[in-house]
Amino acid sequence: MCALFSAISQADGLKKKPVVYLTFDDGPSSDLVTEMVLNVLAKHDAKATFFVTGARARANPEKIRKIVDAGHAVGNHTYSHSHLTSLFDHEVAKELNETSRYVYAAGGPTMTCFRAPFGNTNQRVNDIAMRMGMHKVGWSIDTRDWDVFVDPEQIAIQLEDSQNGSIVLMHDGPQSRWRTLEVFTRWIEDTAGTYSFEVLPECAHRAETYASVDLPIATGISADVGFVADAYISEAYVSEPMAQNVVADLLPEVAKRPLAVVTAHDDLTLPKLLEKLRSYEISLLPEVVAQNGVKKPAQF
């Protein structure tokens, strides 16, 4: 009996390592950093949570699959790394919706957590995310690996502060995060066996379909009236192929409904959208007409 009790106590002791939650933002990377981070994690039987942007998930779908296949969690980090609190409700929804869509299309999970870029969020943004089934996640240790003026030793010092329950913020994207990879690799090797690295519980759930929420673009126009969409591309990412892809994605949805409210923001997407919609009646929103004193919706 004593021997059995001793064996159980030892096994129980092994389970009580401090649990640390490693998180990596802004990926998947356009270079090999994400894959190399995955290799380091696999070597040390460690799990992590990757907060990916929709634009990079769209550009690197195979890396989303690698992250998921390795048993890691994926969180929503918006489509274009936007300051969410400065956006309208429908723009916040668009940033989160698009990321969910491209992660799911790549074979990823339904994401149940989001991290606001720059940590810039508020109750309004959090409520929109909750409608989509996503909990807000922050961090307790910022390694500041994103700051070019912070040297590698300072990053290592931040990592050394890890304790039970710590959520560690690092970056594997968008590219050239070799300094992060080097410091992280050295630290996890030096502390081998000290911690248990797990995915964030808020981000661990998988489901069969992603949650999509369309919010009103203008007062009086609700999502249940028809298709409400925003052909939004951040200026940092807009390109001819991306504009074509966005328009191609929207057209089937517009064709299904008697009413569609669609907005465009850049000089590449708008002309392509209008060209493809020549056979449709296109009018200004009634709210726009009222606000500008126009008696009758303008026809294009």
Describe the protein in words.
With 300 residues, the chain is an alpha/beta fold. It folds into 2 domains: 18-203, TIM Barrel; 227-291, no CATH class. 39% of the residues lie in helices and 14% in strands. The chain is built from 11 helices and 10 strands. Strands 1, 2, 3, 6, 7 and 8 form a 6-stranded parallel β-sheet that branches. A two-stranded parallel ribbon has the order 4-5. A two-stranded parallel ribbon has the order 9-10. Strand 4, helix 6 and strand 5 (135-136) form a beta-alpha-beta unit. Helix 2 packs parallel to helix 8 (178-190), helix 5 (89-105) crosses helix 6 and helix 7 crosses helix 8 (178-190). The chain is elongated.
Summarize the model shown.
This protein is α/β, with parallel strands linked by helices and about 300 residues long. The chain has two domains: about 20-205, Glycoside hydrolase/deacetylase (TIM Barrel), CATH 3.20.20; about 225-290, no CATH class. The chain is about 40% helix and about 15% strand.
Attribute tags:
TIM Barrel; single chain; two-stranded parallel sheet; alpha/beta; 300 residues; six-stranded parallel sheet; 2 domains; disordered C terminus
Chain-wise SSE layout:
Elements: H1 2-14, E1 19-27, H2 33-43, E2 48-52, H3 54-59, H4 61-69, E3 73-76, H5 89-105, E4 113-114, H6 123-131, E5 135-136, E6 141-142, H7 152-160, E7 167-171, H8 178-190, E8 196-197, E9 227-231, H9 240-255, E10 260-264, H10 269-276, H11 286-291
Parallel strand pairs: 1-2, 1-7, 1-8, 2-3, 4-5, 6-7, 9-10
Helix pairs in contact: 2-8, 5-6, 7-8, 9-10
